[in-house]
Design goal:
alpha/beta; Rossmann fold; eight-stranded mixed beta sheet; four-stranded mixed beta sheet; 10 helices; 39% helix; binds S-adenosylmethionine
């Protein structure tokens, strides 16, 4: 059975959460994307430039261990920061948020120890996002990772981030949650699906075979993103488990088409499968 408890990381004594081994692939793709996009990021870094931020709204503790092992790995905020630093185009600000204050504090401490220009938030994710977008430099280049458990990501968070002129989003969409809980969610009047993709009930035919209905739901969500001013192409990369079962998609949504080229290259290196 999967472990659920935090363990202290022997390297720093701070908490680390258990993760499935497929998390390594997610971090590899994140790292590759940040490396591949370094040329564009570099144009925003330096004296008198607007800056390049990394926004990790569901950041976790910054370190994790692989379930059932003693292998400890960096979490997304550290993976993102180190990737940018190591390819000499370091993010000029790293904004982190998590609803669990112990994990958020651990991530903050770890990033600060690594020399990252980290800014810690905390609280309701939508309120944090509204406050952030109001205060970020509108001319900077922004990259946000939205990596919640399950389909708990409110569409309003994306709508708010979309008000930024230059922003790319990397979004974790849980295929497993959708598959396991579709029947239950469709029967609830206010389910996570209603937060994730408001208006879906008028667009998706739930009477059709379930697999087709789920696909239509995801397509509806992708179409809703385009209405927020993102480029037409939205790439879904599927991450599978050890038995090849679908776990989640990593979806890149961007204001500028070049971001999709970078993501395609990252995915080719990471050997994932595309959905659409
Ligand atoms: C999948 S984990 C993040 C892992 C991290 N991105 C990484 O790759 O290392 C999801 C995180 O979301 C946090 N979380 C859950 N609900 C949240 C909410 N409503 N707002 C902010 N964080 C939330 C959890 O505490 C957890 O740390």
């Amino acid at each position: 059975m999967a472990e659920r408890e935090a363990r202290p990381d022997p390297t720093d004594g701070l908490p680390a959460m258990p993760v499935g081994d497929w998390t390594v692939q997610k971090h590899e793709l994140l790292k590759l994307y940040i490396e591949i996009s370094r040329g564009v990021r570099g144009k925003f870094i330096g004296n008198g430039k607007a800056g390049a931020t990394f926004i990790d709204l569901y950041c976790g503790a910054g370190r994790a261990y692989i379930n059932g092992t003693n292998t400890f790995i960096d979490g997304s905020p550290l993976v993102g920061w180190k990737a940018s630093r190591d390819c000499r185009t370091p993010f000029t600000q790293i904004h982190i948020n998590d609803s669990d204050t112990e994990l958020l504090d651990a991530a903050h401490q770890r990033l600060a120890q690594s020399g990252a220009p980290v800014i810690k938030h905390g609280g309701d994710v939508l309120a944090v996002t509204q406050n952030l977008t109001a205060n970020l430099n509108p001319d900077a280049l922004h990259f946000a990772l939205l990596d919640p458990f399950n389909l708990i990501l409110p569409f309003e968070v994306i709508r708010c981030l979309a008000t930024l002129k230059r922003i790319d989003l990397l979004i974790h969409v849980s295929a497993m949650d959708l598959q396991r809980n579709w029947a239950r969610y469709t029967q609830q009047t206010n389910s996570p699906l209603d937060q994730f993709a408001p208006g879906w009930r008028d667009a998706v035919d739930t009477a059709q075979p379930e697999e087709r209905a789920r696909l239509q739901f995801v397509q509806y969500w992708a179409d809703s993103l385009k209405k927020l001013g993102f480029a037409d192409e939205t790439r879904f990369e599927l991450i599978t488990g050890t038995k090849n079962q679908p776990l989640y998609w990593l979806v890149l949504v961007a204001k500028h088409e070049i971001a999709q080229k970078f993501w395609k290259t990252a995915a080719q290196h990471g050997k994932t499968r595309q959905m659409f």
